[in-house]
Design goal:
Elements (H helix, E strand, L loop, with lengths): L2 H13 L11 E2 L4 H4 L7 E2 L3 E6 L4 H16 L5 E5 L6 H6 L7 E5 L3 H14 L4 E6 L4 H11 L5 E6 L17 E8 L13 E9 L5 E6 L11 H4 L14
């Protein structure tokens, strides 16, 4: 499919979307005080681009980064446009992280340039809650265009920077993103008996505009798209009253 045809198809799909009927907010909080208190805007700005990368090319880290984005999109207000280069999204996994299949509009791009163009088109439409894309390469001008397209709206832009075959740090290239995140799988919650406990992620805020970097160990997104402090941390007396494990 050519870029022109892909853009035309996307525009027809977006025109079919009529009002969301939901309350839109300028900021999307995580609902976890330990994270929101460290963010300059006490949450993720909805009119902005946010970059995410897996800590390694491994499947565990890649899945954690993908599901982290799904959890964010699940808590956004409306339909979600997810633009991919390869057909490897696992719907049941996204659903377990709170993102129902009926909310997702899929678009497949032939290369990174077409993917970025589709994301920009989705952001300018203003009828979507989130626009997600997965690229191996995006320059500063590319990310600046996405940031400008998001500004003034309520559509959060999430860009997954995949690892190149030759290795390297996907977040090493300068970007206009307001926040940049690195996600890794972490050892699951220990159980008193044999078995697999609740999955955990190491979440690193590598960079944020107007704030400092930070990192956390969190329990993975639940069926509402929300992260949680590990039980042993959330149950500490010092944590009581300062932040709930889950947001209401």
């Amino acid at each position: 499919m050519s870029s022109a045809v892909a853009l035309s198809t996307l525009r027809e799909t977006l025109r079919a979307i009529e009002g969301d009927g939901l309350r839109r907010r300028p900021v999307l909080p995580f609902g976890v005080g330990a994270i929101d208190s460290r963010l300059a805007t006490t949450g993720l700005r909805l009119d902005s681009l946010h970059e995410i990368a897996a800590a390694s090319p491994g499947l565990g880290d890649d899945a954690a980064a993908t599901l982290f984005m799904a959890g964010v999109a699940a808590r956004a207000w409306g339909p979600v446009l997810w633009v991919v280069r390869r057909r490897d999204l696992f719907a049941p996994g996204l659903y377990q992280s709170g993102l129902a299949p009926e909310r997702i509009l899929h678009a497949e791009a032939g290369d990174d340039a077409e993917l970025l163009a589709l994301m920009e088109e989705g952001l300018r439409h203003r009828g979507l809650g989130a626009v997600i894309g997965e690229v191996k390469s995006a320059s500063m001008p590319n990310t600046r265009r996405l940031q400008l397209a998001a500004e003034g709206g309520k559509t959060i832009a999430l860009l997954l920077k995949r690892h190149a075959r030759e290795g390297g740090n996907p977040l090493a290239v300068p970007s206009a993103a307001v926040t940049r995140w690195r996600i890794a799988a972490a050892p699951s919650t220990p159980l008193p008996v044999e078995g697999v406990g609740c999955p955990r992620w190491r979440i690193e805020l590598v960079r944020q505009r107007g704030g400092e970097p930070h990192d956390w160990i969190m329990e993975a997104c639940d069926e509402t798209g929300r992260l949680a402090l590990p039980a042993r941390l959330a149950d500490r007396p010092a944590a009581a009253g300062s932040a709930h494990r889950r947001a209401a």
